Amino acid sequence: MSGRRDFLSMPAPENYVAGLGRGATGFTTRSDLGPAREGPSEEQMKEMLAKRAAQLGHTAPSAYGAVEKKEEDEEEDRFQDPDNEVGLFSSGMNYDQDDDEADRIYQDVDEKMDKRRRARREAREKKEREEYERNNPKIQQQFADLKRALGSVSEEEWAALPEVGDMTGKAKRAREARQNSMRSYAVPDSVLSAAAQQGQLETSISTDSSDGTMTNFASIGAAQKSALQVRLDSAAKSTPGSQTAVSGTSTSVDPRGYITALEKNSMNGETPVEDVNRARVLLESAVKTNVHNGPGYVALARLERIAGKMATAKKVIQKGCEMCPRSVVVWEEAISLNRDNMHNAKIIAAAGIKQNPKAIKLWIAAIDLEQTVAARKKVTRQALDHNPQSVELWKILINDTEEIENVRMLFAKATDTVKLSEELWISYARVSEPQHAQQILNAARKAIPTSWAIWVQACRLQEQLGKTELCDKIMERAVKALIKENAMPKREEWITQAEICEEEGAVKTASSIIKATVGWGLDQDDDRRDVWLQDSKDSVARGRFETARAILEHAVSVFPVSTTVWHALADLAKRHGTPETVLPTLERAVTACPKSESLWLLYAREMWNAGRPADARTVLGRSFNELPGNENLYVRAVEFEVDAGEFDQARRFLAIARESAATDRIFMKSAVLERQLGELDTALDLVNRGLNTWPSSWKLHAMKGQIYEQQGKLKEAQEAFSVGTRAAPKAPILYILLSRIQEKSGIVVKARSTLDRGRQQNPKNPDLLCEAVRLERRAGNTNMAQKLMAVALQECPHSGLLWSEKIMHLEGRTQRKPRALEAIKKVENDAQLFVVVARIFWSERRLEKAHTWFTKAIVLDPDYGDGWVWYWKFLEMHGTEEKKLEVLSRCAAAEPRHGEVWQGVSKDPRFARKSVEEVLREAARRAE
């Protein structure tokens, strides 16, 4: 046995502290009677660590706060407070006027720079905030799809939902019920006594229940009565007109609001008797508690009227008049309740006015009681004697006067008495002669120098007189005067006023207002052009086209070389004007911006549409002088000549273009024209010439293959498309055309390989993925098509083309609607999906829903031709002639260019020069 002593009986090492290795330094618990022992001091720690290091043969560590010794020559003053200036800056220099001016200049510069960067900074912050909200959606947004799905839950499913209380703790309650059923209790004496007296009858209730075994019903009834009395007393002590909260319950009653609710229910015959009785108790208590509470009497009287007790209501309101003679609402209610007896109502009105001679509402009520105009005037004049400053009373008196001279005299008296009423001054000017109206408005401006409405009325007066040249000057003076008085309204308020003037027919006034005020509050460094463009869009959305035109005219005067503003003005004139306004606008535009290709093209097109082909050719000639060798101008000239049937002239233009502005597009247009005219060999020769210069032009390769296909040479067409895929590997359409040729030749395996090669060169391309799915579907491989569609949606989850293909061709009828809802959640605002949803509703014979979704599709993307095609096909079966004509006109105005079905017809050489209506009808016939 070892001679080593027991560990627990060994003495502790020197300087040992229990728990020191774990960081413990002593602590105090609730059971301690005194403070715990403190840990070792810093000197003890250093000594112990040094001793331990010596035993191990190491150097002493610098732990536990031990730091290396500072250099003796180190200056401690280097860590001084920088705000405590000493030395060079301790001289206490004075802060003079130059310093103040310098600080102000620096502050102005900082504010100017901040204002210049504000728009970009706010745009950047808005973009960052939107990005953050998109990456970190709120819980409400995360559950939006689930909430939307609740709309499809039927009433039967709602009714079948169990209550939360029925499901919570069900197992626990069942277990407790089983345990309780297994328990046994001793039967008390009270139960035995009740069983012995079971056959006896007792007609009285005993009030003494000293033993505690019998229920004291008398005391319960007394307690309920006391509780009800406490509630009523609390309601009576509440502040009149405020909500009455009853202690211990969830009842809160606003007397006036409660009576209003009762009135609404009484109109529908739904007022319950319990509510009336309950409200009566509360209001009677409130009136008794505060006998001078006027609204309380009014509420109680209205309650009695709702209950059908008119006599009681009149008594209540009569008492209210006696107790609250200064309450105007009480007298008004009294007059209203006694309208069945006009004599009594007049007496009550006279009494109320005697008590409240300054109450305008009582005077108006008294005026309404009179039956003749003379009597109304008499009462009104008496009211004006007591209230000469009341605009309402003056208006009533003037409205009751028929003679125009008397009306003018009354207006003169009214404006002299109430000098600060804009309404009276403006109305006075309107009923006066023009010359006198000018004097009236001048006097009004002196009386109310801060009124902008008077300046607007003066401008409208000049417009009515035909002096439109003075409108701009008047508004310029108005702006200066209002700025001087610090009463200049905001720019948005001026735009609203201009729209009101336009609505009332004062178009020139509206234009003058815009011209003088639309730039108010905007600095030259701000994005004024974008602001004015947005203002014009807002006015157009509200149907105020003249105001929008005035805004754009002002923008054009400030930015005369901005093609964006000119395009906006021309578009407004085109959509909401006439050719007489569009063409002069475009003439001004090309004169101001002669180097703008888009303006020249638009001008020539509108000239052609106006039925002036010679002038359109003249415009194009002018454009050639300004923009020599421009490709788009030559193309537009060719289009005009083709539309006019001048094919030889079109060929000459194209020949000139191939010499002076040779591009692959010019060669393509030349080949297209020859192909449309049936000259396939010439078209093929032009395509080959173009490919010699631009071998990577995928459009030329595509046209070459299509020409061979049109000639019936499938092998040559396949070779042309194959060469095109090697020359332009990033053109998905070439792979699609090549696969279709191979499929037509019966080589499905090779077509599948071609599409796979195209997907490798163009990853995540929805067109190639959709064509691969369609290839398998046409071959009858539905399972493979399903697998490819799943892969395609993983690569392109936001493709409306893929979702449309899946919903219409790879889903059963019962699953189409759920898949469509899922697709719309994934792809927001896609016209192709909207058309799919409309077709689903159409197949279910829900025609209104289908019509709504078709309308959404063409409004969202009017350039999507397939939306118009399916809508027209729908209208051919279920639409009216008026609706068909409307859709045809809208489609012609939109001029759609995209869509599989639409492009299949519009690019067919046989429909090259067909109208939009003919293309639409043919496309609807082909759609399936």
TrEMBL record:
Annotated Gene3D superfamilies: Tetratricopeptide repeat domain (1.25.40.10)
Gene Ontology CC annotations of this record: catalytic step 2 spliceosome; U4/U6 x U5 tri-snRNP complex
Keywords, sorted A to Z: mRNA processing, mRNA splicing, Nucleus, Repeat, TPR repeat
SMART domains in the cross-refs: HAT (SM00386), TPR (SM00028)
TPR repeats: 831-864
Domain of life, source organism: Eukaryota
Database matches in PANTHER family: PRE-MRNA SPLICING FACTOR, PRE-MRNA-PROCESSING FACTOR 6
Region (Disordered), start-end ranges: 19-138
GO terms for biological process, alphabetical: spliceosomal tri-snRNP complex assembly
Biased composition (Basic and acidic residues): 39-50, 103-114, 122-136
Protein name per its UniProtKB record: Pre-mRNA-splicing factor prp1
Biased composition (Acidic residues): 71-84
Keyword Nucleus in record: yes
